[in-house]
Amino acid sequence: MKPELTKYIVFSYFSGDATPLQKEMVLEWLADGRNVELYFTWLEEWEKMHIQFQPDPAEALTKVKAKLRDEEPQALPPEPLPAGKISKTRVLLWAAACLFLMSFAAFLGKEFLIYRTYHTAFGEQTRFLLADGSTVLLNANSTLKVPRWGFGKSTRHVYLDGEAEFSVRHTDDHQYFKVHNADKSLITVLGTEFVVYTRARETSVVLNKGKVEISSSAGEKPLTMLPGDHATVGRSGQITIEKLSHEKLAEHSAWKEHRLVFDDTPLYEVARKIHELFGVEVKINGKELAARTATGSFPAKNAEELLAILSYMYDFEIKKAENKVILTPNR
């Protein structure tokens, strides 16, 4: 059985001290694209611990290509070397990292180089700090793309698919923070707190503090939201804004406490929500059961817990079949 890959094994790979088995482990680990961000995070950490002079890229590239062909490198015209010239191993490592980055970027496309992507798995929530000092709480099964270069300086545009709460920091130069949503609608803010739910079928925005503008692909004039407002963007791009009570306002943030709030919500809509958050496909047998409505606040750390409570309250049986959960009314 192979040992578990750790940061220190990857560090050994960077320094050229990894064993053949460890090298194989790193390459297998990198084959999973989800590990690439962590790879470069660790590479940056390792480089900060091993400060070195800038090598000659042309010389390094020539040596790497020669090494890959198992040939002796061609001699290059001698150039003055800086004091404390780095080792051959480190030069090769730097060039190999560049080659890997270029080849991997070509495989993933230019979007990989332009954006850093934050993603949450089903049932997971993640809070993180952006470079401009703003914070984001990303709900389950959600994705946020943030520019790698110049964020907080030349740009403050982010791209959301899913659900998130933003706490946007106001900058000294009054730069707008813009959230591009899955349905092409746009939220423009200076400094404020708000919750956005955006997937292909719907975008919903709830403003807690401050003031924002919301616009849609329909080309209508942007509408201004004030604290307590709830905006929805229809399929045609039409924007509707309503004022929420304190109770209703709190309901839209209940997911942060791993709760779901339903208000006469049909069970087929509940099933859709379970699939969005937990990746569990729910099939409901019978139109009558599918139309039965749920009301109340329910714990929602996982699909099993939520369905167990609902089955007791709304009198249905839960069966598991392959990758599905089937709800059947009790006779």
Describe this structure in words.
The protein is of the alpha+beta class and 331 residues long. It folds into 3 domains: 7-110, no CATH class; 115-250, Jelly Rolls, CATH 2.60.120.1440; 258-329, Phage tail protein beta-alpha-beta fold (3-Layer(bab) Sandwich), CATH 3.55.50. Helices cover 32% and strands 30% of the residues. The chain is built from 10 helices and 18 strands. The strands form 3 sheets. Strands 1, 2, 3, 4, 5, 6, 7, 8, 9, 10, 11, 12 and 13 form a 13-stranded mixed β-sheet that branches. Strands 15-18-17 form a 3-stranded mixed β-sheet. A hairpin with a 2-residue loop joins β17 (316-321) and β18. It is flat. The two termini are 51 Å apart. The model is unreliable at 71-76 (pLDDT under 50).
